[in-house]
Each structure stands twice: as C-alpha cells, then as structure tokens.
Amino acid sequence: MALRATHVTQLQEEKGLNLDLDSLAELRAPVMERVQGVLAARLGLGANVQQMLALRKSLGKPGAPFAGLGFFKWNPELEAEVPDSQVSAGKGAEFEIGPCIAERKVREFERCADCDADSIYFWGLQPIFSADDRAIGVEILVRAKNGADAAPFEDVQALMDPTAPHAIRTVYARWKGTEVVDWPLRLLKAHPVLQRLDFICVNLRPMDLSPESLVFQEVVNRLWALTDNDRMLLLRTVCIEVTEDQEHPHDIGASLRVWQELGFRCAFDDAMSELVLDALGKRQRTSESAAHFHTTVALAPLLTHFWLVKVDMDWAGHMLFLSHPCLGKQGAPRRAEVLRRVRDEGLVYVAQGPSGLRNTNVRHAQLLTEFAAWARQVILRRKHICIELTVRRDDENCMVALEGLQELGVDILGTHASHFCFQGGLTGPKAFDPQQLAAHVMVSPCDFAPVGIDDVHS
To answer: Spelled out in words, what is the top-level CATH class assigned to the domain 123-439?
Structure first.
C-alpha cells in the first residue's frame, strides 16, 4: 500500500501531456466542400483563398479570407466569383441559397451545438504549454471546415450579437451551453488521458456571465442535469475565459462570483497595458479588429476573481519579446531589423503592412519595466500568467526580453516558471480534434490512469 501511495503522488506531480509535436504539426485542418448540398464557398466558407478574397471584394467587405463573411446576402451577380457547375447561373443560383445564408449558418451552429459531425463548424483544442513544453491546458476554439487554422470570426460575431433576434440569441446560448458543459465532458470521458490536463478554457463574453443571460441559464440547466461525478470532473477542469471584446457591465464582479460559486475557475483573456494599447492603436474598433477592453487597469480591481491572466499576443509578440508571428521566423529580415533597432536605438518597431515597420516611439526598457512590475504583483497574489506566444531561450529576440526581465526580478523560464505558461508557437494556430490530441500523447509506462486536479491554481 505504501508503494502504491507513493506512485500516486508521483503521478500527481507529473500532470500534463508530452505531445508528439512534429506529428501534430503535419496534421491539416479538414475541408467540407458542400454544406447540406450548398457549395461552402457560397456561404463564405470556401477553402480557396483567391476565391474568398474575390467574393469579399464583390461584397465590399475587406478582411481575412477565412473569417466567414458573417450573415451576408447572396445575389446572382456573385455567380462569377463562386461558380457551381452543378447549379445553373441566375435563377438556379438564387434558388439554391437566395437570401437565406443567415438561416443556413444559424442552422449549422445548431448542428454544432448538437455535436453533429456534419456541421461546417467544429470545436478544436489549442494546447497551452508549461516552460518545459508539457501541454498543461487547452483552449476550445471554433473552426470551420475550410482547411484554415483560423476562426470563422465574422460568423461567430453575427451569432453572438446581443441585438440579434431572440431566435438567434437562443441558438447562441445553446451553442455556448454545449461548449461549456456537454462537449468538454464528452471529450474527457472519451479520452481519459486528457484528464491529465490542468484546465480547459472556454470563452464567454462579459455579458454572457450575467445570471440573467440566456447563456448562464443554459449552462446552469445542463450543469445540474449531470451526475455528481460528471459535474465534479467538469468543474475541476473547465475554466471560464472572459473575452476582451466587450466592455464590462458595472456588476461583472458579482457575476464572476456567481460562476465561482457554481464551481468554475475564471481566466482573464488578452490583457494589455494602457501604454501598449495606445502604442498599437487598439482603443477603437477598426475594420480589422474589435475594440480592446482588457487593460491591466481594468483587471486590477477584479484580479481576485481570476486564477489565470492571459497576456495578449500583440503585447507579448510586438512589444516585449520582439517575435510576433507576423514578423516571420528566426532570421527573417523584419524580425532581425526589429531586434537591431532595439539594440541600436532602444525603441520598439512593429509590423506595418506586408513588409514595413513602424516606430512606436516607445522604449523597450520602459516596456520591460512596466511588465515586470505588473507580473510581480500578479505572482504575489498567487495568480498565473499565460503568454500567448512561444518564448524560447534559443531565440535571440526573446532573449533580449528574458534577460531584461530577469534583471528586473521576473525569471519567466527559471525561478518563476511555475507561474507562467505559453499558448501557440509550438503547434502554431492549430486547434486539434480531441481524438487527434489524445492519439499524439507520448505515454510513459506510468501514465496508465487519469490524474485529479489539485488546488495549485486556486
């Protein structure tokens, strides 16, 4: 018995998953050519970049090719951009989808909420890594079957619009209820090895948190319909991640307490300092992005409610570690130029356009000092920080920040490593099917059973 108890303790100290990262990197996102008989491209969800960009141009809607285009209206004039050999032009094309793209997309979200594998939309898991490259958590991300490792952002925006008709808001609540309760529980039970994860993050907007919201009511109904064992498994793993794209209601603190009373942990998504927000011009909504409300100032009075705070990729990648993915890989010209400017001038330059750089007129030393002071306060409160970027010692851009922060009392990959985790980079923007993730766990002889989650993050 003593040997068994010792072995269990060892297992509990070895939480997390060692993943076969090389094999995971080779996996490709799925492609669905037709959605219930309709060409996916005609719904703005095609797999061809040029075709999707041409459709955007015709609609006068600039943006990322795979963002979904939202609930736009089809008309026969778009036939030239997305021809379909199985449907004649003009009347045939109009009859096939007509003005009902919104209805068709809402129906696909309903199918997703029913865990129907035939939906064009699906949920995937994006790994979150510890400093020693173990996957200790995941974030649930929505994807479309268009071959892209990107969210159908505009479609989700249209579905979660608080001013949408009640019928659409009801579908959104059902969809979120499945994402928070049914789908995570299903994957944890189907793939017990994933129970070794410390947490599974699910995104909710600030307004979703209110006990008066349809989302909250849907989650509570589903939660209390579970058996005690299933509810315990779900609550020890699922974490509610509050998104940054909506201004906080005045009573958000009370709403967070209600979710905590249900048993959920909460995370603060995409934190960014006021200085960085101004330097990157993210205070106002633009054609490319939503307004950003999650500042460190907004977080301060609410920090007690969160066990995890995520550092926005733009804060980490552009301003701190000088290694934002848009700059290219190590050795890329823009990446090298950003590093040279910091070394020679002390100033941070960020990407502008496809190949240019823009001087933010902010000193890198000032940014490191600001981040270190903030991080020390978070650590002192026994909270954890997720940097939405992969930070490596063998990356000379990252090392400038790592060494600077260490001098300021924050040792991210050393003394304070237990307080930090990292999302992206090692697997890029990919979000994996649970079966794929479970199949690529490199299992050691002692990994024969799921492990419980202790209160290290409380």
So the answer is: alpha beta
Report which of residues 93 and 371 the model is more confident about: 371
Cβ-Cβ contacts under 8 Å for 219 (sequence gap 6 or more): 176, 177, 180, 181
How far does Cα 92 stand from its chain's mean position? Answer: 39
E strand or H helix at 10, and its extent?
helix 2-13
Q: What distance in Å separates the CA atoms of residue 144 and residue 437, rounded to the nearest whole number?
A: 18
Mean pLDDT of 262-287: 86
Q: How far is CA 328 from CA 27, 311, 324, 337, 423, in A?
A: 21, 20, 8, 11, 17
Task: Find out whether 264 and 242 touch, Cβ atoms under 8 Å.
Answer: no
Confidence of residue 450 (pLDDT cuts 50, 70, 90): very low
Confidence label for 1 from pLDDT (cuts 50, 70 and 90): very low
3-state secondary structure (DSSP) of residue 138: strand
Category of 63 on φ-ψ map: left (φ > 0), alpha (ψ -120 to 50) or beta: left
Say if residues 367 and 348 touch (Cβ distance below 8 Å). yes
Tell me the C-alpha distance between 333 and 331, whole Å. Answer: 6
pLDDT given at position 77? 81
Domain boundaries, the chain: 34-99, 123-439
Separation CA 132–CA 17 (nearest Å): 11
Q: What is the pLDDT of residues 332-359, one digit of tens each?
A: 999 999 999 999 999 999 999 888 999 9
